[in-house]
Amino acid sequence: MIDAGVTWTDERVELLKKLWSDGLSASQIAAELGNVTRNAVIGKVHRLGLSGRAKDKAASTAQRPRKAARAPSAPAPIALPDRSNVVVAPLPQPPLIEEEPEILAGDDVAIPMSERVTIMDLRESMCRWPMGDPTKPEFRFCGARSITGLPYCTHHARIAYQPVTDRKRERKLARA
């Protein structure tokens, strides 16, 4: 692949090698060579297989000014955008549920059809657990009273929010 608009003469390649070994950055080399981009310099360096850089930082430090150093004891302040009109709500915690007889995730609790709701009837305080096949007209959501801050009722929250230790144990049993 040929660099568009860049002619790499032997003299320019030698100058590139010298500046690279002196520790100059690709941007500095591009400025020194003229009529070449930083990316063209990087590409040529890779094609030439140049890897070694100057260990002495004096050459590169002399070429460009450094920013003033901060005092090590003072951490840099972080500028945050003004969000005075934003209210941050705490993340909902999974409910602490007392031990009850174990109900498998595949088991549907007998929820009266009158409590089950369609997507159009679903409200914020209702359980959003899907029930049935979404492609069928009989598809509904649980519709029972949801736990505050969570999308599910107590029963479905028990299924959805399993403790990590239980999930790991179930995976180990499945592998055995």
Quick gist of this model?
32% of the residues lie in helices and 2% in strands. By secondary structure, it is mainly alpha-helical. The two termini are 55 Å apart.
Question: If you had to describe this structure to a student in words, what would you say it looks like?
Answer:
The protein is mainly α and 176 residues long. The protein folds into 2 domains: 10-63; 96-176, no CATH class. The chain contains 6 helices and 2 strands. A two-stranded antiparallel sheet has the order 1-2. Helix 2 crosses helix 3 (38-48). It is elongated and about 85 Å long. The two termini are 55 Å apart. Residues 100-107 have low confidence and may be disordered.
